[in-house]
Amino acid sequence: MSVVPPNRSQTGWPRGVTQFGNKYIQQTKPLTLERTINLYPLTNYTFGTKEPLYEKDSSVAARFQRMREEFDKIGMRRTVEGVLIVHEHRLPHVLLLQLGTTFFKLPGGELNPGEDEVEGLKRLMTEILGRQDGVLQDWVIDDCIGNWWRPNFEPPQYPYIPAHITKPKEHKKLFLVQLQEKALFAVPKNYKLVAAPLFELYDNAPGYGPIISSLPQLLSRFNFIYN
Question: What residue spans define the domains of the chain?
Fold first, then answer.
């Protein structure tokens, strides 16, 4: 059973104002109802190769052991990943790095202690996909689209901090990276760069993991323009 506040109008709350007692405070910050992002065809982009880029850790166990050791020294690990989108036949596709036959990841990695998130992601994007001819890549990063936390030194990650966790072991941020109309990417030889359509990712945690399979929902707030 709901109770209607005595000051509430029968036609709904006043729009654009906030009520505190009998006073109204005008909201000055505009609400962004629609964020427009330009997408370009996959065929606009050129993909070359460069020397292999290997993981810091030789196994999952080694990764969590290093995370444990670093946590004791510098605290929670901060990770950033970039979401790059193209389109084919007006269907959005996310660029993923494929290692082997079944492992997919977003480009990104660990931040250095004290490193700015956006500048760190630009550094990592250049290390992973940056071209080799000396031309600097212009990474446009304006939108954080997701936050994930690792509560323990174990694989599970969640888009929230569980109530009983006071010291998460890793915080991962996902950023939308807006691509220029044309670009050249250099892909490490031990990876493939694949374009996965959103309908393939949607609700497909068994194939891509919980983070990548959540991208269709995270990206649904954007209005894509297919150029």
Answer: 45-226
